[in-house]
Amino acid sequence: MTARARKMPAEGFPLRTVSRTMIRNCWWSMWLGLSLLLLVASSAAQTCQSAADMEAATRTALETTAKRYFEMAAHGDTASLKQNAIPSLAGGFAGVEAAVKDNQASLTGAQATVRPPFLLSADGPQPLPHGEFLCGVFGREGQTKDSAVFVLNNLPPGKYAVTVLDVSGGGASAVTLTLVLQQIGADWKLGGFYAKASQTTGHDAAWFVQRARDFKAKSQMHNASLYYLQAIALSTPVDFMSTLATDKLYDEAKSTQTADLPANGNAVDISAGGKTYHMTEVFPLAVGKDLDVVVKYQSPDISDSARTFQDNTALIKALVAKFPEFREAFGGVVARAVDPSGHDYGTLLAMKDIK
Question: Which of 112, 280, 300, 307 has a 20 to 30 A CA-CA distance from 159?
Fold first, then answer.
C-alpha cells in the first residue's frame, strides 16, 4: 500500500511553535543556569499569570469566551468563529475550518469543561523571536501541579490567553480543545484553534505509560521509548506547552533512549540492499485502528514513485530486521522518503506482510 503523505493543515495561531523536546530542554537549561529570581528579571519582555494569579473578572471573561467559541465549533459555525478571529488568523482560516470539520463528530452534542486558563503578556515594539512563558509556581525541582511552560516563536506584542477545554460526551472520542485568545480592545478574539484526541487506538496516556514500563522491564527499549513518546503526546494538549506531567514522563523516558534511533535532531544511518538510508525521525502514529511506527529518511529525488517504493520497502524490512521487537508493539511500519524541498512519498506495510 502506498500513499503520498498529506501535510496536516494549520489549525491556529499564525506563528512558529517548537517541539516538546525543545520545550523540555529549554526549561531545564534555564533552570540549571539561572536562579528563579534572575530568570524572572531577565524575562521582562514576557510574563505569564496562572488562573490563581489573575483577577476574577479576567478569569471569568476567558472561561466564558472559551465556552462561547466551543459552542460555535460544536455547531459547525465556522463563519462566526472567523468573525471573532484576529485579522491575521481570519485572513487564512482554512486550517481552523478543516479542524472543526475533522472533529465535528466529537464536538457535536458534547460537554466542555474549561481548565484554569493562563494569561500571557508579550511586551516591546517587536515580535518576540523566542518567547518563553513560565506560568504559575515553580519549585527547586521545576514545575508544580498547576504550572505550565509555553514556548512560542515570533509572537507579536500583545496580551494573550491559553484556554484548554476537556470535551466529551459527543458522538465520537473525547478531545481536548485548546484555544489561544488575543485581547483586542475589550474583547478576546480567537488566535488559535487546536483539537486533539484524548486517546489513540482506544487508549489514553496512562495506558501507554504502563505499556512503556512493561516494554522497559523486558529490555525492549526501542518499543518503550516510542510508547513514552505517545504517552507524552497524549498528556499535553498542544506541542508548545509543557506541564509537570510531561516533565515527569520525559525524565522517565530518558533511560529508554538509544543511540541507534534518531532523536532530538540527530540522524542515524541504516543499511539495506547495499544502500545507506539517512533516518531523520522515528515516531509512533495511529493509522486507522493500529499504532504504526513511522520512519522518515532523506532522499535526493522521489519523482520515480516505483523506485521510491522499492527504497521504502527495503528500509522497512531492514528496520524490522534490526529491531524485531517492533513486531510486538506495532501494527505496521510507514517509511517516508523526504526530498530536499520537503516533499515526501510514503509507503505502509502491515507487520504481517514484512518478511
Answer: 112
- Residue type at position 306: A
Does 172 lie in the same domain as 231?
A: no
Residues 6+ apart with CB under 8 A from 271: 277, 318
Question: What are the pLDDT digits (tens) for 140-199?
Answer: 889 999 999 999 999 999 999 999 999 999 878 899 999 999 999 999 999 999 999 999
Exposure class string for 38-77: b at 16+ Cβ within 10 A, else e: eeeeebeebbbbbbeebeeebbebbbebbbebbebbbeee
Q: Which residues contact 66 (CB under 8 A, 6 or more apart)?
A: 114, 117, 163, 165, 179, 181
Phi, psi for 177 (deg, rounded to 5)? -115, 115
- 160 and 31: one domain? yes
Tell me: do 25 and 139 sit in the same domain: yes
- 76 and 139 in one domain? yes
Q: Domain range for residue 218?
A: 205-256
Residue 44: what pLDDT?
52
Cell numbers that stand for 110 in this block: 458534547
- 219-260 pLDDT, tens digit per residue, is 999 999 999 999 999 999 999 999 999 999 999 999 999 999
